[in-house]
Amino acid sequence: MTIHDEAATPTRHMEPIRHDNLLINFTTEFHRIWDSAGSRAKPAAFWRPTPAPDALPGYFPLGDVIAAGFDNLNNASAVAVVVCEAQVASTDPAKGKALRRPDDFELIWKDSGSGSKKDGAIWRPIPPEGYVALGCVCSNDHDKPSLNAVRCVRADLVTASKVNELIWSDKGSGAKQSVSVWSIAPPVAAPGETHLAPGIAISDNGYARPESFSAYSLRMPIALKMNARPVAPTLNGRIPPSELDTSTHTAKLPWFTIKDPLLTPLEQLRSSPFYLLQRTDRYLLVGHEHNPESANRTFRWTAPRVQGPASLLIFARATSVKFEGQWQSSMPTAMAFSAHLEDDFTQSKPHSTEWFNSIPMEIIAFAPKNRTVAVYLIQSDYRLLRADGTPVTDSFSYTDGNSLHITEYTPEEPETITPSLQTMAAPVTPPITETAKPVSAVQPEPPIATVTDSET
User: What is the mean pLDDT of residues 425-453?
Assistant: First the structure.
């Protein structure tokens, strides 16, 4: 019979992460299934994630988790992934449901001969065609678990992963069979995605790293809202406009991808299950001048670049979030992840070094006679906010050197009034007899502006 240890206080219901018709959530409640007490193996216990029906109705675990020792996991701030079928069907009706129960279970190991106080066995779910199992299931006897113990996930919602590090083995238990339990490492995340490895790998080859075990991680898109660029300013007089348009873009990141300097992981789940990384774009005036003369004039300004490698490094150390590629969990746990922001959001294209370029820009603008010219660049300000809107750390900024905007103002010429004259006969103009008529030439104007890096 399963041992039901005292459960932890349920975590308040949080908005699930959605991928097509799959809903992903988290629970802090577990039931002990089996432990190694009585055997000579290192102390360990298998626990089943048990989402509270009132907080997470319809959710299922993907597999059991293992923890060192015999202490109650509900008192250890542990978190596990649970999944649910969304009420709205897949965007592609041909794909079918996101979740299916396993067709059967395959025995991997049982404790016979170990001297354990309780019978126990470990089983691998056999998924239906088109689905995969992301974990294993333990039983507190030698009978197959219920088919409703876990759910299998549709194959397009996961990504292949690799077996990582050893967590526990029954070495020294005296059991007739040998078994070892391993963590799973997700692959490098594609831009705009998070990969989460919620399960464990079981070796059916004794204590060697499992070679035939198919490991998987959940794929989660990073919710991203990108808006249009801010409206470019326009000169309507000699004085530049004081109010300029802004545009904010937002990436929504799950709690487990963020290191919060003020909150533990469990506190993050309970009080800030998601974080908003905001980017606000605004045009900043580099310089403006009026040319009162009768010939073209050249004006020069120096525009600083506000970014630098130090700002990215400080932000990554404080939050773990990286702009120049993926970031991942630092410990091989049951919540191992990898995440990668969209390149358009971070403005860090592959092989680009603009985030590390702090050299000021030299801007040269040409103003025709009697005109006013103004030069602008877009600055992006980034900040990371908790669910309640409080900042996690200091904000930082980026100057887009490719966003140069030039606007000019030309005053209207005053209307000239000519006094009326008496009608006179027009003088006779002799005909033009030259073979080639005269042609007036229009002199081209020089380019409005150019941008170069300042010489240091």
Answer: 48
